[in-house]
Write a structure and sequence with these properties.
The complex is a heterodimer of chains A (373) and B (133). Chain A has 373 residues and is an alpha/beta fold. Chain A folds into two domains: 6-114 and 204-227, Peroxisomal Thiolase, Chain A, domain 1 (3-Layer(aba) Sandwich), CATH 3.40.47.10; 135-200 and 230-372, Peroxisomal Thiolase, Chain A, domain 1 (3-Layer(aba) Sandwich), CATH 3.40.47. Helices cover 34% and strands 19% of the residues of chain A. In chain A, the strands form two sheets. A nine-stranded mixed β-sheet of chain A has the order 3-2-4-7-1-8-11-10-9, with helices on both faces. In chain A, helix 3 packs across helix 13. Chain B is globular, with a radius of gyration of 15 Å. Chain B has strands at 2-3, 9-10, 20-25, 32-33, 49-52, 56-65, 78-85, 90-94, 108-118, 124-132. Chain B is mostly beta strands and 133 residues long. Chain B has a single domain (2-132), classed as Beta Barrel (OB fold (Dihydrolipoamide Acetyltransferase, E2P)). A six-stranded mixed β-sheet of chain B has the order 1-10-9-6-7-8, with no helix packed on it. In chain B, strands 2, 3, 4 and 5 form a four-stranded antiparallel β-sheet that branches. The chains are: A alpha/beta (373), B mainly beta (133). The interface between A and B is large, with 38 and 38 residues.
Chain lengths: 373, 133
């Protein structure tokens, strides 16, 4: 049996920010109802559920899906740190492409404590005791190597945040909706050089939801589908002369997705990348083949990733301004790209967007997806 | 003196012994790893041999941590480094005795041990670091 075509039929979000009065289940339910309504699908038609989350522990999927109903469907919890809900969508897509289901609902949700994330049970390790687990650590280490190899400058990284906050101001679901100047960003508290406080994504409460369907089944519903053309995931590959600093070989899985769709980097109109810390954007656009290796810094500095730029990246503010509820971020990336491809992104709209690229990474793996209208 | 975790590095047992990192060497393909591990990442050989690693290496990349992470005995500011040892293994650690103007990719460094805290029993808790040579 040939793999069936898969679509994103509906998307939904709960605003990202701080909601101490709301339970995880409340935010998840609101995002899910929005996605179901967007798809024109009744919850009783959903055949499988996938729940992306990181911190809350066991049985979160059941708690979250029970808010919508108890219909007996298989619900699976997916944890891939910051890339949980994009991996959850990929698993739903695998099952749909393989003919197991026609309709699945993916919910990503997170409630987070403030401050630097600890290492969980890794906290008693020698690395933690010796101060090696600084949150921006891998990104700061990669940034310095990039500066050494290509002459990238600290202000190039800071510019990512300046663009992000300007875009966030156009997104009513973003945690931060205020522009920040380059000076404010560079003068904010240094966390790990060259990454200052305003170059780090915040901790956030929030939820996202995505209805995934077979293309054929989607025709029975009113939702405006967007084609999920390719998806691939990876973990790091051992290289003797390179330390394992990134979440995985983005370049390899991007190439897999380009080959699957017959599209190339030049065909991409709009992008979401994992900007947990500003170097993430500059390095990712290179690894995704969108700019030549080493040229990410100047490309960003000269406005290349603006909404009106040559390669718009994170039009809704990205992790930096939209916020980063770990389990919900992947779904939020898919929501923004879906709206872009439908022409529904309002003031953030990239004109004529037809092909979108998603890159979502976490401690544990990296995902790349290509969507097309 | 006690190491802050066993099996990671060896404290010198006398004045004539050097401290050393404990890693692995694949007897099949020769690759070295830190920390120690059972299976070679390069060729898949099982039960690779535990070995002490050399002290010398070069900085592959670094950053300056300005905020102390949760659970850390090391107080910011400090220089976090990735060192490639002469045998090839990559090691993450902090620098001892750093001059920020001098730190650079390619800088030659040497592994040392230093006190990083005190155990519940009152012993010196030792950690490994790298020092510019």
């Amino acid at each position: 049996m040939a793999a069936r075509d898969v679509v994103i039929l509906g998307v939904g979000l709960h605003k990202f920010g701080r909601f101490p009065e709301k339970r995880l289940e409340d935010m998840a339910r609101e995002a899910a109802l929005m996605a179901l309504k967007d798809a024109g699908v009744d919850y009783k038609d959903i055949e499988a559920g996938f729940c992306g989350h990181v911190l809350p522990g066991t049985a979160v999927g059941l708690r979250v899906f029970s808010e919508l109903g108890l219909t007996g469907i298989p619900v699976t919890n997916v944890e891939l740190a910051c890339a949980s809900s994009s991996r959850a969508v990929m698993l739903a897509a695998d099952a749909i492409a393989g003919g197991v289901y026609d309709l699945a609902l993916v919910i990503g949700a997170e409630k987070m404590p403030r401050g630097l994330l600890g290492g969980g049970e890794m906290q008693a390790s020698y690395q933690s005791l010796m101060g090696l687990f600084i949150m921006p650590g891998a990104y700061a280490l990669m940034a310095h190597r990039h500066m050494h190899e290509y002459g990238t400058k600290p202000e190039h990284f800071a510019k990512v945040s300046e663009k992000s906050h300007r875009n966030g101001a156009l997104n009513p679901y973003a945690q931060y909706q205020q522009p920040l100047s380059l000076e404010e960003i560079m003068n904010s508290r240094m966390i790990a050089e060259p990454i200052t406080l305003y170059q780090c994504s915040p901790t956030t409460d929030g939820a996202s939801a995505v209805v995934v369907a077979s293309a054929e089944k989607a025709r029975q519903y009113t939702g405006k589908p967007v084609n999920l053309k390719a998806w691939a995931g990876a973990t790091p590959i051992y290289h003797r002369d390179e330390p394992e600093l990134s979440e995985g070989p983005t370049d390899i899985i991007a190439r897999k997705c380009y080959e699957k769709t017959g599209a190339g980097p030049e065909d991409i109109d709009v992008v979401q990348v994992h900007d947990a810390f500003t170097p993430g954007e500059i390095l990712s656009i290179e690894h995704l083949g969108l700019v030549p290796e080493g040229e990410g810094g100047p490309f960003v500095w000269e406005g290349g990733t603006e909404i009106t730029g040559k390669m718009p990246v994170n039009t809704d503010g990205g992790l930096l301004s939209r916020g980063h509820p770990l389990g919900a971020t992947g779904g939020a990336m898919i929501a923004e790209l879906t709206r872009q491809l439908r022409g529904e992104a309002g003031p953030r709209q990239v004109q004529g967007a037809k092909t979108a690229l998603l890159h979502n990474a976490g401690l544990g793996g990296v995902n790349v997806m290509i969507l097309q209208s | 003196m006690v190491p802050l975790r066993e099996g990671i590095f060896r404290l010198p047992s006398g004045p004539d012994e050097e401290p050393a990192l404990i890693g692995s060497r694949c007897q099949n393909c020769g690759d070295h790893f830190f920390p120690k591990r059972h299976i070679c990442l390069s060729c898949g050989q099982e039960d690779i041999e535990e070995t002490t690693l050399g002290r010398r290496g070069k900085i592959w990349t670094y950053t300056v941590a300005r905020q102390t992470p949760p659970g850390s005995l090391m107080q910011a500011p400090y220089v976090l480094v990735v060192v490639q040892l002469a045998e090839g293994a990559m090691v993450q650690a902090v620098l001892s005795d750093w001059d920020l103007e001098a730190v650079h990719v390619g800088m030659e460094v040497e592994m040392v041990v230093e006190k990083m805290g005190t155990s519940a029993e009152g012993n010196d808790l030792m950690a490994f670091k790298f020092k510019p040579v």
